[in-house]
Amino acid sequence: MNLFKTELRRILRRRLTLIFGILSAAGLLTLVGVMGAISSKGPSEGDLAEAQIWADEANETNPEFNDCVRDEDHFETEDYVWVREDPAYEDLTHQERCEYFVGGFTAEDYLYVYTFNFANEGQYTLVGVVIVVGLIMMMVASSAIGAEWSSGGMSNLMVWHPNRLKVWGVKLGAALAICAAAVVAFSLLAFGLLYLVAVLRGEVGDMNSAWWENSTERWSRTGLLALGMTALGASLAMLGRHTAIASGVIAGYLIVGDLIVSLVSMALPMDYPERLSLYTWVSAWISGRVELYNWNAEEFVPDVMVITSTDAGLLLGGVVLFFALLATWSFRRRDAA
Amino acid sequence: MPPIIEISGLRKTYRRSFRQPHHALDGLDLEVAEGQVHGFLGPNGSGKTTTLRALLGLIRVDGGTMRIFGEEVPQRLPQVVSRIGAVVESPQFFKHFSGRLTLQLLAESAGVDKNRVEEVLEQVGLRDAAKASVKGYSLGMRQRLAVAQALLKQPQLLILDEPANGLDPAGIHHMRELLQWLAHSQGVTVVVSSHLLSEVQVLCDSMTIVSRGRRIVDGNVAEIIAGHSGASLNVRLPDAASLPEAVEVLTASEPEVKAVIARDKLVVSGAPEPAWVTQTLAEAGLYLSELTTETKNLESVFLELTGTAATPGETVQIGQSVEVAPVEAELQVEGVQQ
């Protein structure tokens, strides 16, 4: 427990942790500030009137639309039987039908007003915040371990604590604990601030029980992803014994590796090439489900491959576990020279 | 009383792709008695740091046994580590942490009383610099901080790799006083690896000299030096031109005797006793102007034993020290101990 507390204190006292903490908080405040600045409760009557004028002017130069408006029987022809029969369109006025099917401009097309809806957008913004926190914690964890190796601090620590499994376990545990605390803290902060923006400058939206259930599941899975990223960063630093190696491997895969995978998948005659990309699995893990389509030239209906969050969790968890075990084995076996 | 450290037949080989394996330790033996300052000496690359790292569980060995406080290490190291303080090679610290925070973190991690931090800062002379971040420390100050962290646990065994590295003369003096006080007043066993032979000669009670991963000699420092002094005699004649004749007379009289002209004097070794030299030369009509027993210091003994003394025009390369067969090494040890 002493070692765990010390490790927590050491990571938190590091300058990089402090810098990343400040930058993350500043980034979140900036995001919330921008959302608050661009969002508004809705267009004013003046905005609506001005937009309508713009739409009318545009429609005047659109002969097809004008013909449609003038021709009351435009939708009585054989071509538009489905419009007449579809109940979804029965409430539309003739002009609205013209706008919709022939192509006319409406006031909405000229309303440059954005209203932030917490129920619709807040969920995704929070997922983004947690992913960024996970990425930052991956760097913090890999740096804390990598710097200790390259500075000689790890050898020094092992002279005090020769049980290597305990040392590695404590380091990993401390990094995960800080990641969990950061995820919770930033999620709550982001939730509160975004909700405030919605109340003051936008719309809260419908946050019913289904929304809460869906959001909680999504946030929990994203939080677990952040923990996995932290464990991966720590494991790579333990394997490479240098921050730069861990960062290089991660950045290299995210930028170049996935590009290579995409090129290879294009070159290979295979079904569902997207499944080779890590992003596909990460996306499935966060959203809960991803469908990949395989378009066969002879058929109009594509084959579908479904990746559920369970599938993605097994694969991503397996990757993290593999590197964590490899780091454990390496730390136990290799000389600390 | 059993030794505090016992190492027997320690082997460590570094295997490298496409290159010959390097035997860093080749059957090394080492024993350190309780309450002594023990010097651990050897040329560069002779295996000193490798031995200390192996002893502290930082590297794996390929053979041999090691015991500290009678417990086999590294298997039982967690049980005895609380009694060991160590500094291996030049320790590096997080440069943005202060000296005090560095020690506090280590003390906290091992459940050491917080008051010890201030005590050891005082002991190593870093009290006034404790607040400053380590990046502003000189090499000597970092060395002091390293020794301070080794002292935190109030160890019964202190292992220091080059503790005088970077210290100024006052620092070296202070470190010497501190280590001798710890050993002789507090009963702490101190193992010091160093290249500062003059310092080792003053500081250490006993020592082990290693070369190419094997022990060459061990024992009491004064006895080892005495054992290698007096083996040769410096002889001067009134006329230096007579030195070659003196060489012939001495070597012809006794085949065991070796005589070498060194500038204006003769260095004689293997003579039964000094009086024999006086008598033999006098009988040949050669009269001495000076006959002295060569007094050696640790440096000359070390250079002689390790075979690393430079000869004019040649540089001693790393790894060119003497290679000692295990049996031969043991015989020399016995000879010294006798």
Helix-strand blueprint:
The complex is a heterodimer of chains A (337) and B (338).
Chain A lengths: L1 H12 L1 H24 L6 H16 L2 H8 L10 H5 L8 H10 L14 H34 L1 H8 L3 H38 L7 H32 L2 H25 L10 H10 L1 E6 L8 E6 H25 L4
Antiparallel strand pairs in A: 1-2
Helix pairs in contact in A: 1-9, 2-7, 2-9, 4-6, 7-9, 7-10, 7-11, 9-10, 10-11, 10-12, 10-13, 12-13
Chain B lengths: L4 E10 L7 E11 L4 E5 L6 H8 L7 E6 L2 E3 L3 H4 L3 E4 L11 H11 L5 H9 L15 H13 L5 E5 L7 H18 L2 E5 L3 H7 L2 E6 L2 E7 H8 L3 E5 L6 H11 L4 E5 L2 E5 L4 H10 L6 E4 L4 H9 L19 H12 L1
Parallel strand pairs in B: 3-8, 3-9, 6-7, 7-8
Antiparallel strand pairs in B: 1-2, 1-4, 4-5, 9-10, 11-13, 11-14, 12-13
- Provide the spatial order of strands within the biggest beta sheet of chain A: 1-2
Strand-residue fraction of chain B? 15-25%
Category by helix and strand content of chain B: alpha/beta
Strand count of chain A: 2
Overall spatial form of chain A: elongated
The interface involving the most residues is between:
A-B, 27 and 30 residues
Report the C-alpha radius of gyration of chain A, rounded. 27 Å
Biggest beta sheet attributes of chain B: 6 strands, mixed
User: Which value, in Å, is the CA radius of gyration of chain B?
Assistant: 24 Å
Mean pLDDT of chain A: 88
Q: What proportion of the residues of chain B is helical, as a percent range?
A: 25-40%
